[in-house]
Target: Glycine/D-amino acid oxidase-like deaminating enzyme
Amino acid sequence: MKDQTISSTVIIGAGIFGVSTGVQLARRGIRVTILNDGPAANGASGRSLSWLNSSRMRSEPYHRLRMAGIDRYRTLFAQHPDTDWLRFDGGLTWDADDAGNEIADAYRHEVSLAYDAQHLVAGDVEGITPGVDPRGIPSQGAIFNPGEGWVDLPRLIEVLLQEFSALGGVLVTDQGSARVIVENGRAIGAQTASGARFEADAVVVATGPAVPKMVEESGVTIGDGTPIALLVQTKPLDHPLRAVLNTPRVAVRPAPGGTFSLDADWAADEGVTLRPDGSYAIDNAVVEALLAETSRIMEGNPKLEIASIGVGGKPIPGDGEPVIGALKAIPGYYIAFSHSGATLGLIVGELLSYEIVTGEEHPMLTTFRPERFASL
Model:
């Protein structure tokens, strides 16, 4: 296979997709500049639950891509076995005790895919994965997935940027938002709000929830289902919970230093309001209710205290599937836009850099091309 003539790339966005792609390109000898409107990981990557999984039901190509993503994290974990920012202590999930409970169906589906799963009744949980109050688990039981884990994306991005810099990559921050420069129908670089211009053979847009609007400026439509997300980080707590919990009212993920990250769609819907100036108002009563829900499902029902709150768009394409690869209508223009940014973070960088350097389409990305939204 003969590589196409690519010697330089500009990446807009210093979240996990942008930084991962930058490192992979730099490893291939490409000159890379990453542009970010503020410090690295200041967007969706800084407020992600970052649960590494492929549980429940989704398309087969998406499942395979997520499993490849988890595989890359296992390789990374083998290189950093004592780290506190990447762990594989499993995931535990259950549904509400109502007619919509799908735990039995989800378990059968996971078993059919050979996805490591255990269907547990409440009394079994303590012996399998400690730190959970079993009274919160309904009669239909819960699923424990031993192979799942979590990553702290800001810490991972920091590690990747160290390698990126050592390979000669350049990170440019705090020059405002950037736009893609398209001349004569081709992407030739990017320009920041401050006026700085960076030319390159290829441009990657990896700006999380801002991707659809940015590509729309070039006449390309990407379906966008981005909601507002709310992530609460707790203060350190001495507690035995190590698995990620995904429950009807809250998702809980252990974090470095004995802290926990909390996420719930209802809390974002009820507790966050967009102000006219683009900032967010947060309802403290809703946040306190989220803390109470979390305490209720944790062993000992501990008192949780807020360390920080992150609010902003959660990148989700209109059809829920990743959008990765070249914009065929504009040569030299590539995008990475997806939910599950943590799970896909390393594999997307690897596959996207492969496509940029070789000019070949990777078969694992076949169903995730931007062109599927062309009729919108």
